[in-house]
Amino acid sequence: MTLLASAPLHPDAIREVLIVGGGTAGWMTAAAMTRLPAGIRVRLIESEEIGSVGVGEATIPPLVTFNAMLGIDEASFIKATQGTFKLGIEFVDWGRQGDRYMHPFGEVGMDMEGVKFHQHWLRQAQGGDPTPIEDYCLSAVAARLGRFTPASSDPRTVLASLRHAYHFDAALYAGFLRRFSEARGVERVEGKVVGVSLRDSDGFIESVRLADGRRLDADLFIDCSGFRGLLIEEALAAGYEDWSHWLPCDRALAVPSANTGPLTPFTRATADRAGWRWRIPLQQRTGNGHVYASAFTTDEDARASLLAGLEGEPLAEPRPLRFTTGRRRRQWVRNCVSLGLSSGFLEPLESTSIHLIQSGISRLMALFPTRRFDPVLIDQFNRLSQTQFEQVRDFIILHYKATQRDDTDFWRHVAAMDAPESLERRIALFRAGGRFMRDGDELFSEASWVAVFTGQHILPQDHDPLADGVPYAAMARKLAGLRGIIRKTAEAMPTHETFIARCCQPP
Ligand code: FAD
Fold this sequence. Notes:
- There is one protein chain.
- The chain is built from 14 helices and 21 strands.
- It is of the alpha+beta class.
- The protein has a 7-stranded mixed β-sheet.
- A hairpin with a 7-residue loop joins strand 4 and strand 5.
- Flavin-adenine dinucleotide binds next to helix 1, strand 2, strand 13 and helix 8.
- The site of flavin-adenine dinucleotide has 38 residues, from helix 1, strand 2, strand 13 and helix 8.
């Protein structure tokens, strides 16, 4: 998008945007808004006294596009954020204790004879072949070998099937985006918001009041104030839909630890007695945390479990966080759009929170209003946001629902609970011959769902009859050949450390 700096603005154009909050959501929004036409003033208020959650360390591949859209150089970003590369998430002990499977990014196998790859794999598995589906995915094989290189742009090579994301220090990313945004005209205001004034005529936000008495007005307000939802909830009462009956985890403890072994190019999520633990490798430290359900364990037991699972020395006291899983009923109300934790929260099992910020920003940019705030735009934004939150919610619930663990009350509870009808339908469809239908432009691909279904033992008894078009033995040879190419390609890639060292070298 090239904008003419001198072009006159639309007569009803938004002229002042005020972002409240400077966590990951606030600074990602500010950075994206540097692309608005000149003449639109963007300000961001944050309070050093309040601080940010700043835990988000693991991401999914679309963030690569977000950074590229801003023109951010990947090597500078990795260097500035202590970043590492991520090829997927390893799930340990989820389906059964002792299980280990990868939800890799990137493509898995390839469709053949007009039939989905996983159907060919299913047919071979039903015929007795024990090869896990991840062996047909370069991202998964490279991740397990500790290798990394970005995807090739040549679609004829298997290297084109890779996708990557990042692990990074969220506070450093916010700082990086702050420098980026301020250099492009975003004005930062240090201060604590203590009041919000609504216009008498229509209830739109007129201004916010800071603790030192200053008043800041704007046409469009973006609420990035975190869990409280200072504008969207406290001032505009958007309402909150609580999903904790499906996702009972409501607390977390986060702690950094010293690095020990090689930097794995994947996040690890290990199921625990009443929740799960994350492990996220950064260049200088490892990020760890334990997400747990307070109805099923105590804070002391959760802390002990987290510390017992660390591979290196803890570098700080575990930091407690509390949350209620769910979503803001209306994420855009009048002239206020909520992004980030103020718009809802889903536990970071699939590293989706930062992505939900990114996609909220894209939606806002695609539906950017004038000062007339056409209700059709607001309604569209809210409907799309609801659909996306629900789709991600279902994918996360699947990890709990599809467990065969019965060793604690927590696992017995989540295995027995009623899942949302939308998820029950998907599970039933997959059980009936491995069928899967993606809804529109939903975030997680068929390959992602298949990875979790099969990794957690939802294995259909049958397969697509069209997969029988190729003789079993011929398909077995084809698949063995594909595995060989993938393995060889992964082995020829540099180690993750070597790639990072190259990336972070001074120019
Ligand atoms: P916050 O980080 O809370 O920032 C809020 C901002 O608002 C701060 O700058 C604060 O100063 C400001 N503010 C608040 N009140 C006021 C006021 N009165 N006046 C002025 N300023 C104010 N996401 C991922 O994508 N991957 C992960 O691996 C991941 N892990 C997570 C683990 C846990 C346990 C939790 C809880 C979250 C995790 N997330 C993860 C989510 C991620 O942390 C958030 O999505 C991200 O940090 C965005 O937060 P935010 O900017 O919305 O809010």
